[in-house]
Protein backbone atom coordinates (compact mmCIF):
# COMPACT_ATOMS: atom_id res chain seq x y z
CA UNK A 1 0.00 0.00 0.00
CA UNK A 2 1.33 3.45 -0.88
CA UNK A 3 2.20 5.90 1.88
CA UNK A 4 -0.60 8.15 3.18
CA UNK A 5 -0.63 11.79 2.06
CA UNK A 6 -0.94 14.79 4.36
CA UNK A 7 -1.48 18.40 3.38
CA UNK A 8 0.85 21.18 4.51
CA UNK A 9 0.66 24.94 4.03
CA UNK A 10 1.45 26.44 0.64
CA UNK A 11 5.21 27.08 0.29
CA UNK A 12 5.88 25.05 3.47
CA UNK A 13 8.04 22.64 1.46
CA UNK A 14 10.21 25.41 0.03
CA UNK A 15 13.78 24.73 1.13
CA UNK A 16 13.00 21.19 2.25
CA UNK A 17 15.55 18.63 1.04
CA UNK A 18 16.57 15.04 1.85
CA UNK A 19 17.71 14.93 5.45
CA UNK A 20 15.35 17.69 6.61
CA UNK A 21 13.23 16.91 9.67
CA UNK A 22 9.81 18.41 9.03
CA UNK A 23 7.26 18.94 11.85
CA UNK A 24 3.64 18.00 11.15
CA UNK A 25 1.09 19.25 13.67
CA UNK A 26 -2.34 20.88 13.81
CA UNK A 27 -5.31 19.08 12.22
CA UNK A 28 -3.11 17.07 9.85
CA UNK A 29 -0.79 16.05 12.66
CA UNK A 30 -3.79 15.04 14.76
CA UNK A 31 -5.16 12.97 11.90
CA UNK A 32 -1.79 11.27 11.39
CA UNK A 33 -1.29 10.47 15.09
CA UNK A 34 -4.78 9.93 16.49
CA UNK A 35 -6.70 8.65 13.45
CA UNK A 36 -4.14 6.96 11.21
CA UNK A 37 -2.02 6.06 14.27
CA UNK A 38 1.26 6.41 12.41
CA UNK A 39 4.29 5.29 14.35
CA UNK A 40 8.05 5.79 14.13
CA UNK A 41 9.48 4.21 10.99
CA UNK A 42 6.28 4.32 8.92
CA UNK A 43 6.30 5.99 5.51
CA UNK A 44 4.49 9.26 4.90
CA UNK A 45 4.08 11.79 2.07
CA UNK A 46 3.66 15.54 2.55
CA UNK A 47 2.26 17.81 -0.15
CA UNK A 48 1.18 21.41 -0.55
CA UNK A 49 -1.52 20.36 -3.02
CA UNK A 50 0.20 22.35 -5.79
CA UNK A 51 2.43 19.59 -7.12
CA UNK A 52 5.22 19.68 -4.52
CA UNK A 53 5.80 16.64 -2.34
CA UNK A 54 8.19 15.18 0.20
CA UNK A 55 8.48 11.47 0.95
CA UNK A 56 9.88 10.34 4.25
CA UNK A 57 9.43 8.33 7.42
CA UNK A 58 8.09 9.21 10.84
CA UNK A 59 11.07 10.03 13.05
CA UNK A 60 9.22 10.94 16.26
CA UNK A 61 5.71 11.19 17.68
CA UNK A 62 4.71 13.37 20.60
CA UNK A 63 1.28 14.03 22.08
CA UNK A 64 -1.88 13.57 20.07
CA UNK A 65 -1.17 15.95 17.22
CA UNK A 66 2.56 16.21 16.54
CA UNK A 67 5.05 14.11 14.65
CA UNK A 68 8.36 14.73 12.93
CA UNK A 69 9.11 13.49 9.44
CA UNK A 70 12.60 12.63 8.27
CA UNK A 71 12.53 13.55 4.58
CA UNK A 72 14.07 10.99 2.20
CA UNK A 73 13.22 12.59 -1.14
CA UNK A 74 11.43 15.58 -2.64
CA UNK A 75 9.80 16.06 -6.01
CA UNK A 76 7.73 18.54 -7.95
CA UNK A 77 5.11 17.53 -10.51
CA UNK A 78 4.56 19.95 -13.42
CA UNK A 79 1.02 20.86 -14.32
CA UNK A 80 -0.27 17.99 -16.49
CA UNK A 81 -1.03 18.48 -20.17
CA UNK A 82 -3.59 18.81 -21.47
CA UNK A 83 -5.30 20.44 -18.49
CA UNK A 84 -8.86 19.15 -17.93
CA UNK A 85 -11.59 21.32 -16.42
CA UNK A 86 -15.14 20.14 -15.75
CA UNK A 87 -17.90 22.72 -15.44
CA UNK A 88 -20.32 20.98 -13.09
CA UNK A 89 -23.94 22.13 -12.85
CA UNK A 90 -25.12 22.16 -9.24
CA UNK A 91 -26.75 18.79 -8.44
CA UNK A 92 -29.38 18.14 -5.80
CA UNK A 93 -28.49 17.10 -2.25
CA UNK A 94 -25.05 15.71 -1.61
CA UNK A 95 -24.50 14.60 -5.21
CA UNK A 96 -22.29 17.65 -5.73
CA UNK A 97 -19.77 16.36 -3.20
CA UNK A 98 -19.99 12.91 -4.81
CA UNK A 99 -19.15 14.41 -8.21
CA UNK A 100 -16.22 16.38 -6.78
CA UNK A 101 -14.91 13.34 -4.91
CA UNK A 102 -14.96 10.94 -7.84
CA UNK A 103 -13.65 13.48 -10.37
CA UNK A 104 -10.76 14.30 -8.02
CA UNK A 105 -9.93 10.62 -7.51
CA UNK A 106 -10.04 10.12 -11.28
CA UNK A 107 -7.66 12.99 -12.02
CA UNK A 108 -9.54 16.16 -13.04
CA UNK A 109 -7.50 19.37 -12.77
CA UNK A 110 -10.20 21.96 -12.10
CA UNK A 111 -13.90 22.03 -11.23
CA UNK A 112 -16.20 24.96 -11.92
CA UNK A 113 -19.55 25.01 -10.06
CA UNK A 114 -22.18 26.28 -12.50
CA UNK A 115 -25.54 27.79 -11.60
CA UNK A 116 -27.43 26.58 -14.68
CA UNK A 117 -30.93 27.87 -15.30
CA UNK A 118 -32.49 24.43 -14.76
CA UNK A 119 -30.62 23.65 -11.55
CA UNK A 120 -32.98 22.77 -8.71
CA UNK A 121 -30.22 23.72 -6.27
CA UNK A 122 -29.16 27.36 -6.16
CA UNK A 123 -26.22 28.70 -4.16
CA UNK A 124 -27.21 31.96 -2.53
CA UNK A 125 -25.79 33.88 0.42
CA UNK A 126 -24.38 31.92 3.33
CA UNK A 127 -25.75 28.64 1.96
CA UNK A 128 -23.78 29.14 -1.22
CA UNK A 129 -20.57 29.84 0.67
CA UNK A 130 -21.05 26.77 2.86
CA UNK A 131 -21.72 24.58 -0.18
CA UNK A 132 -18.61 25.89 -1.94
CA UNK A 133 -16.56 25.23 1.20
CA UNK A 134 -17.86 21.63 1.23
CA UNK A 135 -16.84 21.12 -2.40
CA UNK A 136 -13.35 22.44 -1.68
CA UNK A 137 -12.97 20.33 1.46
CA UNK A 138 -14.14 17.28 -0.50
CA UNK A 139 -11.53 17.95 -3.20
CA UNK A 140 -8.80 18.23 -0.55
CA UNK A 141 -9.76 14.99 1.18
CA UNK A 142 -10.19 13.11 -2.10
CA UNK A 143 -6.83 14.45 -3.28
CA UNK A 144 -5.15 13.02 -0.19
CA UNK A 145 -7.05 9.73 -0.40
CA UNK A 146 -6.04 9.24 -4.04
CA UNK A 147 -2.39 10.09 -3.25
CA UNK A 148 -2.26 13.17 -5.46
CA UNK A 149 0.40 15.85 -5.10
CA UNK A 150 -1.59 18.35 -7.16
CA UNK A 151 -5.18 18.85 -6.03
CA UNK A 152 -7.87 20.22 -8.37
CA UNK A 153 -8.88 23.85 -8.07
CA UNK A 154 -12.54 24.37 -7.21
CA UNK A 155 -13.39 27.86 -8.45
CA UNK A 156 -16.10 30.19 -7.26
CA UNK A 157 -19.52 29.42 -8.71
CA UNK A 158 -20.00 30.87 -12.20
CA UNK A 159 -22.90 32.15 -14.25
CA UNK A 160 -23.57 30.99 -17.80
CA UNK A 161 -21.88 34.13 -19.13
CA UNK A 162 -18.77 33.44 -17.07
CA UNK A 163 -18.70 29.79 -18.16
CA UNK A 164 -18.91 30.90 -21.80
CA UNK A 165 -15.77 33.01 -21.27
CA UNK A 166 -13.94 29.98 -19.87
CA UNK A 167 -15.02 27.91 -22.87
CA UNK A 168 -13.90 30.57 -25.33
CA UNK A 169 -10.39 30.44 -23.83
CA UNK A 170 -10.05 26.64 -24.17
CA UNK A 171 -8.21 24.70 -26.87
CA UNK A 172 -11.09 22.20 -26.85
CA UNK A 173 -14.54 22.83 -25.37
CA UNK A 174 -17.49 20.46 -25.24
CA UNK A 175 -20.96 20.22 -23.75
CA UNK A 176 -21.92 16.69 -22.73
CA UNK A 177 -25.36 16.21 -24.24
CA UNK A 178 -27.39 13.09 -24.99
CA UNK A 179 -28.42 14.51 -28.36
CA UNK A 180 -24.86 15.27 -29.45
CA UNK A 181 -24.14 13.70 -32.85
CA UNK A 182 -20.40 13.25 -32.23
CA UNK A 183 -19.03 10.81 -29.64
CA UNK A 184 -16.51 12.33 -27.25
CA UNK A 185 -14.47 9.18 -27.86
CA UNK A 186 -13.76 10.28 -31.46
CA UNK A 187 -13.30 14.03 -30.94
CA UNK A 188 -10.00 15.59 -31.97
CA UNK A 189 -8.15 16.55 -28.78
CA UNK A 190 -5.19 18.89 -28.25
CA UNK A 191 -1.92 17.54 -26.86
CA UNK A 192 -1.46 20.63 -24.72
CA UNK A 193 -3.54 23.52 -23.44
CA UNK A 194 -6.94 23.38 -21.83
CA UNK A 195 -9.86 21.02 -22.33
CA UNK A 196 -13.14 22.21 -20.80
CA UNK A 197 -16.23 20.01 -20.47
CA UNK A 198 -19.69 21.18 -19.43
CA UNK A 199 -21.94 18.82 -17.45
CA UNK A 200 -25.54 20.00 -17.28
CA UNK A 201 -28.09 19.72 -14.46
CA UNK A 202 -30.78 17.09 -13.93
CA UNK A 203 -33.15 19.07 -16.12
CA UNK A 204 -30.65 19.39 -18.93
CA UNK A 205 -28.89 22.33 -20.57
CA UNK A 206 -31.38 24.89 -21.88
CA UNK A 207 -31.45 25.88 -25.57
CA UNK A 208 -30.31 29.38 -24.60
CA UNK A 209 -27.31 27.98 -22.73
CA UNK A 210 -26.44 25.66 -25.60
CA UNK A 211 -26.54 28.62 -27.98
CA UNK A 212 -24.31 30.72 -25.71
CA UNK A 213 -21.80 27.89 -25.38
CA UNK A 214 -21.83 27.20 -29.13
CA UNK A 215 -21.02 30.86 -29.76
CA UNK A 216 -18.06 30.42 -27.39
CA UNK A 217 -16.85 27.43 -29.40
CA UNK A 218 -18.28 24.55 -27.36
CA UNK A 219 -20.38 22.00 -29.22
CA UNK A 220 -22.46 19.04 -27.94
CA UNK A 221 -20.83 15.63 -27.64
CA UNK A 222 -22.22 12.38 -26.30
CA UNK A 223 -20.49 9.87 -24.06
CA UNK A 224 -22.33 6.71 -25.04
CA UNK A 225 -25.74 5.11 -25.50
CA UNK A 226 -26.73 5.41 -21.83
CA UNK A 227 -27.70 8.62 -20.05
CA UNK A 228 -25.60 9.28 -16.96
CA UNK A 229 -26.55 11.31 -13.93
CA UNK A 230 -25.07 14.78 -13.64
CA UNK A 231 -23.04 13.56 -10.65
CA UNK A 232 -21.35 10.77 -12.64
CA UNK A 233 -21.03 12.13 -16.18
CA UNK A 234 -18.03 14.33 -15.38
CA UNK A 235 -16.13 11.42 -13.86
CA UNK A 236 -16.81 9.16 -16.84
CA UNK A 237 -15.80 11.89 -19.30
CA UNK A 238 -12.63 12.70 -17.35
CA UNK A 239 -11.59 9.04 -17.38
CA UNK A 240 -12.19 8.86 -21.12
CA UNK A 241 -10.07 11.94 -21.78
CA UNK A 242 -7.25 10.84 -19.48
CA UNK A 243 -7.03 7.61 -21.45
CA UNK A 244 -7.26 9.25 -24.87
CA UNK A 245 -4.68 11.97 -24.13
CA UNK A 246 -2.12 9.52 -22.76
CA UNK A 247 -2.23 10.84 -19.22
CA UNK A 248 -3.29 7.35 -18.17
CA UNK A 249 -0.69 5.79 -20.42
Automatic annotation (TrEMBL):
<keyword id="KW-0698">rRNA processing</keyword>
<keyword id="KW-0949">S-adenosyl-L-methionine</keyword>
<dbReference type="Pfam" id="PF20260">
    <property type="entry name" value="PUA_4"/>
</dbReference>
<dbReference type="InterPro" id="IPR046886">
    <property type="entry name" value="RsmE_MTase_dom"/>
</dbReference>
<keyword id="KW-0963">Cytoplasm</keyword>
<comment type="similarity">
    <text>Belongs to the RNA methyltransferase RsmE family.</text>
</comment>
<comment type="function">
    <text>Specifically methylates the N3 position of the uracil ring of uridine 1498 (m3U1498) in 16S rRNA. Acts on the fully assembled 30S ribosomal subunit.</text>
</comment>
<keyword id="KW-0489">Methyltransferase</keyword>
<dbReference type="InterPro" id="IPR015947">
    <property type="entry name" value="PUA-like_sf"/>
</dbReference>
<dbReference type="GO" id="GO:0005737">
    <property type="term" value="C:cytoplasm"/>
</dbReference>
<dbReference type="GO" id="GO:0070475">
    <property type="term" value="P:rRNA base methylation"/>
</dbReference>
<dbReference type="InterPro" id="IPR006700">
    <property type="entry name" value="RsmE"/>
</dbReference>
<feature type="domain" description="Ribosomal RNA small subunit methyltransferase E methyltransferase">
    <location>
        <begin position="79"/>
        <end position="241"/>
    </location>
</feature>
<dbReference type="InterPro" id="IPR046887">
    <property type="entry name" value="RsmE_PUA-like"/>
</dbReference>
<dbReference type="GO" id="GO:0070042">
    <property type="term" value="F:rRNA (uridine-N3-)-methyltransferase activity"/>
</dbReference>
<dbReference type="InterPro" id="IPR029026">
    <property type="entry name" value="tRNA_m1G_MTases_N"/>
</dbReference>
<feature type="domain" description="Ribosomal RNA small subunit methyltransferase E PUA-like">
    <location>
        <begin position="24"/>
        <end position="71"/>
    </location>
</feature>
<dbReference type="InterPro" id="IPR029028">
    <property type="entry name" value="Alpha/beta_knot_MTases"/>
</dbReference>
<keyword id="KW-0808">Transferase</keyword>
<protein>
    <recommendedName>
        <fullName>Ribosomal RNA small subunit methyltransferase E</fullName>
        <ecNumber>2.1.1.193</ecNumber>
    </recommendedName>
</protein>
<dbReference type="Pfam" id="PF04452">
    <property type="entry name" value="Methyltrans_RNA"/>
</dbReference>
